[in-house]
Amino acid sequence: ACPAHGRCAMKCVVWVRTAPPDQAGSMAAYADLVQRSLAPLAADWTFATCDLFDPRGGASMWRHHVWRLRHARRALTAHPADLYHWLDGSMAAFIPPALRARSVVTVHDLIPLLQARGELPRRPSWPARWLIQRGVTALRECALLCADSAATKADLARLAKITARVKVVPVPLRPLPPPRPVALPGLPPGARFILHIGHNASYKNRRGVVDVFLRLRDSADLHLVLAGPSPSPELVARTNTLPMVHFVGPVDDAELHDLYRRAALFLFPSLYEGYGMPILEAMAAGCPVVCSTAPSLLEVAGDAALSAPATDPDALADACRQLLSDAALRQTMIERGRARAAGFDIASFGNLLLKCYEQALTPKEPHD
């Protein structure tokens, strides 16, 4: 544990985790990246972790939210620190007011706020809207915000009116373990396939992925593989007469690596993203990418992917067709992708985080 605040010669930071470390998902992966990036740089710092989730476990999101409302202040009091780094900005509602001036928050996206404003489907319930507004208030009062992307920083300015003390800290490439083959029933050995990874939320645009694939049915022996949760009933009904579409369910990191390496291309036409880690993973694995023109995806991909608007399946299909038919272009994009992914390194990430910690501990100027 970190020494009591004020008695420690070194600067003490507590990482606040709101997702169990063994839980699959991007938040657990981000916590691991933060810890591994800062471990070699800890000469003048000490680090500790505070877990803010119901220790009884369970799948109910609201069970954990109620636990946090009741126990967050007590749990954090047991971890005194100079600074608290909240690893998931969607949990800002649970930052005790007394600790906000000593809190750094990583903001990955603003999906809940976009939903509350009606800019994305699935309007939140009134208790959820209360938490969202409470979270926005907390973010405005924190010492510093780390945005995954310049697009998320722009969202903070537009949606939450937060412009001061926001730093862009791109998430580094998440290393994947050696590939382990995934069984794909119904897919002939050696068949070409387009890969998509995502869940059923509308902004992931699974429906759009199928729309793009339908425009490529003139490509001989081309299949579509969708990894992630079971498809929605609507998507099942839409694809049950399409034998070339395969849903493989959730995959672990080794299986994901295998899919990237085997795919003809990775299609990621999201309507909205706060970042684009799957794009980096695909590029690092040598899989060329076609993505939407969502600002965060263009920011991550640079010139190493082909892109078109998420709402234009014809243009996305044309981009896919270029990669499928032009071997020279395909090789160029693979080489650009590997180089692009290599630039998102963990050492740079750790150094940026330390600079953010230093700034957060610097008293605010009147104009901040």
What would you say this structure looks like, in words?
This protein has helices spanning 26-38, 61-77, 111-116, 126-141, 150-160, 206-214, 233-239, 253-262, 277-284, 295-301, 313-325, 327-342, 346-360; strands at 11-17, 45-51, 83-86, 103-107, 144-147, 166-168, 192-197, 222-227, 245-249, 265-268, 289-292, 306-308. It is of the alpha/beta class and 368 residues long. The strands form 2 sheets. It has a 6-stranded parallel sheet. Strands 9-8-7-10-11-12 form a 6-stranded parallel sheet, with helices on both faces. The longest helix is centred in the N-terminal third of the chain and has 17 residues, at 61-77. Residues 3-7 have low confidence and may be disordered.
How is this fold's topology laid out?
Blueprint: E1 11-17, H1 26-38, E2 45-51, H2 61-77, E3 83-86, E4 103-107, H3 111-116, H4 126-141, E5 144-147, H5 150-160, E6 166-168, E7 192-197, H6 206-214, E8 222-227, H7 233-239, E9 245-249, H8 253-262, E10 265-268, H9 277-284, E11 289-292, H10 295-301, E12 306-308, H11 313-325, H12 327-342, H13 346-360
Parallel strand pairs: 1-2, 1-3, 3-4, 4-5, 5-6, 7-8, 7-10, 8-9, 10-11, 11-12
Helix pairs in contact: 1-13, 6-11, 9-12
Largest sheet: 6 strands, parallel
Mean pLDDT: 91
* Amino- and carboxy-terminal Cα gap: 32 Å
Indicate the radius of gyration in whole angstroms. 22 Å
Describe this structure in a few short sentences.
With 368 residues, the protein is an alpha/beta fold. The chain contains 13 helices and 12 strands.
